[in-house]
Design goal:
about 500 residues, 19 helices, alpha/beta, elongated, 6-stranded mixed beta sheet
Length: about 500
Amino acid sequence: MKTLLEVCDVQRRFGGLIALSGVSFRIETGEIKGVIGPNGAGKTTLFNIVSGRLRPTRGSVWLEQRAIERLRPCAIARLGLARTFQNVSLFDHMTARENVMTGLHLHGRAGLLASAMRWPRQIREERDLRRRADEWLDFAGLEDAADTPVAALPFGRRRMVELARALAQAPRLLLLDEPASGLNNSESRELAGTIRRIRDLGVTILLVEHDMSLVMDVCDSLLVLNFGAPIAEGPRRRYARIPRCCRSISERSPVMLSVRNLRCGYGRLEVLKGISFHAAQGEIVALVGANGAGKTTLLRTLAGLLPPWDGEVYVQGRAIAREPAWRGIFNGMTLVPEGRMVFADMSVMDNLLVGGYRNPDRRTVIRELLARFPRLGERQHQPAGTLSGGEQQMLAIARALAGRPRLLLLDEPSMGLAPLIVREMFEMLRDLRRNDLTVLLVEQNAAAALHVADRAYVMETGAITLEGDAVCLRDHPEVRRAYLGQERIG
């Protein structure tokens, strides 16, 4: 088969940060090649270099034996390369048809004067472009949305409009940047079929995606990146079978929480910049990072206290991103906020009754909680405001558990607590995990969080920069230097 795209020893620096280093691979005509790796691995940077949005610091990119690494994006597009974006990039005030027609501009012949004067030739050409745009909308299953402004379409359909627009350019090589992000399971399955149909049209595809079920379903070969460097490349079948003992909880259990391209902020200040991650049933997932990284904003957005700007949040497959905060309780999600926020003038027992008000079996659950937290049992008739800081934190967690949540959001539970109390509290979290409770733990005490978690994500300035198994992240040099120092919890 003929090589369509060849990337040779590409490196890209941003100041002192090396985003890509020594990346080389080929794509044959008609192939679907997947690029996988954790957040911060350099996947989108690679796409930006191939499509001309960035120039490599070193190395070359060849499209059908023509060097394109110094060409402008418009020149590369004329050579037959099109792409979609990780965050959907459409003209919201335009209809779906008009957005797709912008992808056909390379095929138009009428100039500015002809368009302004509405000459017959230009009218005929526009009619033809509208027809071709409708054909691509039909291909993407959007025939009923042609005249709908894209701002009024659900997120999944907006993704398909962007895909139709890219296909309208008649590309030979199509770059898909996380096309399944924001899609539910049904939409992801439909997308897999669409990608195969695109390949049947003779289009070669380079795919970046976190949804491994989609990747393994459609890709012919894979390139694995980590910290900007290739660590593996080969046919898909080489990676199709992973020994079961090596799989994490998140690969064995159903997904409880899925967050895709979540953006949020305050006023004009963007705090969350396209956050994507997931947590499986019965898993403890830690979010670590410095002050100002966006961790508390993320939890507030998940809990419905802060409306998102864009993106999707799913709890057991149900979209909840734009539901009010009280619906989160009905969906089985409870937030333990930073600072505990117990009702100081109410007794310990009354705090627990408030937490379990929706649970018909709350009395039984509260008895179990008082047995689990004996100090609360001893002080059940005492005003919550008279408890110590550690006892108030125990009460805040017990109050949340009184409602029997399936997903517990914990915001800085160790803040201000003595080391012994911190140890006891995190051991308790391990016990809760055995009951299939999913815990999303935001914690500045990275050593404690990574000791108890199954997996972890590192946040910096509103973005996830590292992810992986908690044990591996504890040993990662960047994590140890930035967050752990010489800390260890035995």
